[in-house]
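User: Show me sequence and structure for the first protein, then do the same for the second.

Assistant: Starting with the first protein.
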Amino acid sequence: MSSMDVTNLSRNYFRKMFAEGKRFDGRSNFDLKEVQIEYNISNKAEGSARVRLGKTEVVAGVKLETGAPYPDSLDKGNLMVSGDLLPLASPRFESGPPGFDAIELPRLIDRELRESGAIDFKKLCIKEGENVWTIIVDIYPINDDGALIDASSIAAIAALKNAKLPGLNEEGKVDYSREFGEKIPLNEDIIPISFTFYKLGESLILHPTREEEEACEAKITFGISKWNGQYMVNSCQKGGKATFSGKEIAKIMEILPEKYEEIIKNLGNLLK
């Protein structure tokens, strides 16, 4: 999160608006952006989706390959998440080695997916100790107008729900000439979603625009899911110099279930 291009005048104006519960686009502080999902964006991926969260746009693709399991999970499949923050998506992104944001985004999505239990890793085992499926989730922001992590989390789970396992040959290797089979083994009742709360002064907001995001002084991201009627926090990461008080964290914990249910309702049949 960078605020180097935000003037003190702009920051003070945002601070005053947020304190009054107002925003330029007419939303209140915790109103969510509209979500749209489009599937089968790539004919080279086993699953793909384009997500628009307001004006923020992210494409996610899923590739599947077979190989050895990790030494500490011989009977489970593998997961890898990558993110590529290209300059075409935002003036904040630069060419060259990945910066902190480019490392943070895929790690947060990886942790959220892994810890939520959304993927049934045991069902990705082909032959214990020898051959398992590896799920590779690639995330490509197309336009960053704020709340990029939150948009990416929706794109990742949408692409996973869209993906199908390719056929295998006699050696247990991927054979793309064979008919694609079942979908990736997901726990259908578990849908992990990220919510990033931004702080400016004494105010908290959700789903900021890029200008609002750049004016803020701190952020905290929670990955949340629901399992057996219980809300679960799967991941958490804080950024920025300002601190969050215990009272503010308590308020976030109070808001999270409500916003999770709201976005799941808004997604409706989009997550198929």
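Switching to the second protein now.
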Amino acid sequence: MKNVKLKKLISHITAVSCTIGMISAFSVSPVNVSATGENISIEKIELTLSELQNLNYEVTVTASINGNNDGFSEIAFGTYIDEKLKLLNYASTGNLASSNPFDLGGYNESINLLWLGCLIQLDIFTMEQQYVENDGSIYNFSVTVPQDAKVGDIFYMKFVETNPNGKTSSISTRSQKNQPLTGSDGYIKIVDDTSKLKGDVNNDSEINVDDASFVLNIYAKTAAGLNPEITEEQKIAADVNNDSNIDVDDASLILNYYAKNAAGIPTKWTDLIS
């Protein structure tokens, strides 16, 4: 039974690899793209306690625009910062708006509301409005995470909800086609070392087809009575479903995790493993 699943998975890996290659060739937009095609997303960050300590508890979060096909001349949005976080600074330091001198922003500490925005300047020769196209980061802001943070803590950064009258959105924009934007909330999550390792079997800080192939290699050697030379960390990373076995099921989960995220469907291990 495992051999049948193995053959199917190898075929699936080949098919997914070809599909992902085609996706890359046609420059499909990054993850977090909304149904309407344009979305501002706040970064979702996972850190271990040791990584957080190495950062001196200071974390920089990026807000990015995805699916930006129409181009924008102005963007403004409000974000509620978790009350346990301390805002250090904010600036339009992204690759799309960093050269823009018209920087909008403000922070109301009493309600933990950060308002960010940028206004693209007119062409200095024609005085016509300029529009920034393509995807990328538009704002960075830095926060301090409490030093008593523990594994499992999640500190959210949420977009301000639309006003009750439905007429004023938390995200305003001026684009060439007046296309409204949607928003994807972000967070800083404290995870344990095991969760951080999960799926990254070859320890290259990425989870992809190579990791699935690595798991299949481990499984094949073990099934053949050989002893694969892997570290304890690689064993933890390879056993993604935590059943104490490294086999085809783990490779399939890794491949599924990679394919969904690469296709623009944000997916976590908890979404795949019950």
